[in-house]
Amino acid sequence: MLLTWLFLKTKYRFKKITGVVVCVAGLVLVVFSDVHAGDRAGGSNPRKGDILVIAGATLYAISNVSEEFLVKNADRVELMAMLGLFGGIISAIQISILERNELKSIHWSAEAALPFVGFAVAMFMFYSLVPVLLKINGSTMLNLSLLTSDMWAVLIRIFAYHEKVDWIYFVAFGAVTVGLIIYSGGDRDEEQQPPNAGDDLHPAVKQDEEVNSGNQSKGTVAGSSKTWVA
After folding, report:
1. Helix or strand or coil: residue 161?
2. Does residue 193 lie within any of the structural domains?
3. What stretches of the chain show up as alpha helix (H) in DSSP?
4. CA 145 → CA 35, 140, 227, distances in Å?
5. Would you say residue 130 lies in a domain?
6. Do 8 and 117 share a domain, yes or no?
7. Labelling 111: which of 39, 134, 153, 172 has CA 20 to 30 A away?
8. Are 71 and 4 in contact (CB under 8 A)?
9. Please, what is the angle between helix 46-73 and helix 14-36, to 10°?
10. Is residue 196 part of a domain?
């Protein structure tokens, strides 16, 4: 939201700001639950993990704001084409450097390739629909909506790994949901075009102008008739 205000000159109403504050409060609750909870299995360094997550989210926000600027000021199809082209090249370089050993250890088969294909299809659909969402609602709404993805991780931990989840997670999810509802309910301030000068006139004044205009037209016709008779 700060980036769109600084670089895209977007103006927000108080209702939208309130929704963002509530969503951020939910995110703070998620971080706080990682720090204070001692009754469940956690990572070796949860604070470091939270810092890395926040740093990654900040970089992702910068990426989305930049993409919103390009979507609204350039060709959307060209943006998606360049994103797919250079994204594929950069991802291939990244895999060959950072995950080369993991890639060699995979025993390729139909069952092993199916998850990769599913992930590729999901990413294709996601990055194809993101420009549409950025065009309609902006990058702030997209980033706030992604905060709900934490609840999918919570559900996986509960039902797949049978781990105990801190109750603050559910409070945080409720706060994020309420914040999204508040944010989506408020409209972004738009630059309104000034009304025409004639639209602000009183109906009686406009009627007098129409009568005078009609009289002038009649006088012009009468003068023309006299000229032809002469």
Report:
1. coil
2. no
3. 2-7, 14-36, 46-73, 76-98, 100-104, 110-136, 139-145, 149-159, 168-185, 203-229
4. 24, 9, 76
5. yes
6. yes
7. 153
8. no
9. 150
10. no
pLDDT tens-digit profile of 145-186? Answer: 887 777 777 778 888 888 887 788 888 888 988 998 998 885
Residue position matching structure tokens 């409209």: 187
- Residue 193 above 80 pLDDT? no
Q: Which residue type does 55 have?
A: A
DSSP character for 211? H
Give the burial class of 127: count Cβ atoms within 10 A of its Cβ; 0-12 exposed, 13-18 middle, 19 or more buried. middle
**Does 161 lie in the same domain as 213?**
no
Supply the DSSP string of 183-197, one letter for each residue: HHHSPPP--PPPPPG
pTM above 0.85, yes or no: no
Q: How many domains is the chain partitioned into structurally?
A: 2
Domain assignment present for 125: yes
Alpha carbon distance 201, 151 (integer Å): 56
pLDDT at 155: 79
Look-up: residue for tokens 């139909």?
110
| Dihedral sign for Cα atoms in the order 222, 225, 226, 227 | positive
Query: Which backbone phi and psi does 119 adopt, to 5 degrees?
Result: -65, -40
Spatial distance between the Cα atoms of 78 and 76, rounded to a whole number of angstroms: 5
169 and 220 part of one domain? no
Encoded tokens for 128: 């194809």
Residue at token pair 């299995």? 41
User: Using one digit for the tens of pLDDT, what is the confidence trace for 62-94?
Assistant: 988 988 998 888 888 888 899 889 988 998 999
Residue ranges making up the domain that contains 92:
2-185
